Amino acid sequence: MVETLLDVYRNDTDGLKLHLAPVDLVKIAEDVATTLMELAASRRVHLSFNYGTSDFRNHLWVNADALQIQRVFANLLTNAINHSPRGGIVKIILETGSSYQVVKVIDTGPGIKPEERSNLFQRFYQGQSDRQAKGSGLGLYLTRQIIEAHNGTIWSEDNIPGGAVFAFRLPVLPFQTAVHT
Predict the structure, then answer these.
(1) Which CATH superfamily is 2-171 part of?
(2) Residue-range domain boundaries for the chain
(3) How far is it between the farthest Cα atoms of the chain?
(4) Alpha helices (H) along the chain
(5) H-helix or E-strand spanning residue 151
(6) CA–CA distance from 158 to each of 106, 112, 128, 143, 169 (Å)?
(7) Is the preceding omega at residue 161 within 30 degrees of 0, hence cis?
(8) d(CA 164, CA 113)
(9) Are 151 and 170 in contact (CB under 8 A)?
(10) How many CB atoms lie within 10 A of CB 103?
(11) What is the rounded distance in angstroms from the CA atom of residue 10 to the CA atom of residue 50?
(12) Are strands 153-158 and 164-171 parallel, antiparallel or unpaired?
């Protein structure tokens, strides 16, 4: 928690320093989910992957700081696991688009109260819920900082009939074309 607080402070004062390189969002998502399997198992929550319109694993390439994107996935997946009831499912949806790669993390928890939605990504904000673990109120704030530093967008929405969706999109890594002279 201290490290997160220091990172938030540094990001607020100096801006987020990124080490950009081509990264595959699918690989990062799968790696982070693997590290959280024990937490998910202890809460009896199942993690499920969906690769968009295809049933097959795709690659979602972006120009990003891999460590920071790992933090985004860790924050979103940990929140989803902690907000889901025993026997719940957390879905990770990875969709490729022409301009943006889109990631959605969907839980089967109580959802988001309409009056809380505007505060979700604010520093130190914690919504009222019966979640299984308490946090610092910094995870979603830091997640928003990271996504915005990558020229992306993050948002939340309701999962009908119940639960919450936290999603972000990042610009697609453009194909590099060789210039012939």
Answers:
(1) Histidine kinase-like ATPase, C-terminal domain (3.30.565.10)
(2) 2-171
(3) 64
(4) 2-14, 25-35, 37-42, 66-83, 139-149
(5) none
(6) 9, 7, 16, 19, 17
(7) yes
(8) 10
(9) yes
(10) 27
(11) 35
(12) antiparallel
Dump pLDDT digits (tens) for 80-94.
999 899 999 999 999
Q: In what order do the strands lie in the sheet with 100-106?
A: 46-50, 89-96, 100-106, 164-171, 153-158
For residue 27, which of 76, 73, 91 has the smallest C-alpha distance?
73
Contacts of 2 (CB under 8 A, 6+ apart): none
Report pTM.
0.82
d(CA 48, CA 78) in angstroms, rounded, equals 14
State how far the Cα of 104 lies from the Cα of 125, in Å rounded to an integer.
Answer: 21
In this structure, are residues 77 and 90 in contact, taking their beta carbons and an 8 Å threshold? yes
Three-class SS state of 49: strand
Give the pLDDT confidence of 117-140 residue by residue, as tens digits.
665 655 544 555 554 445 555 678
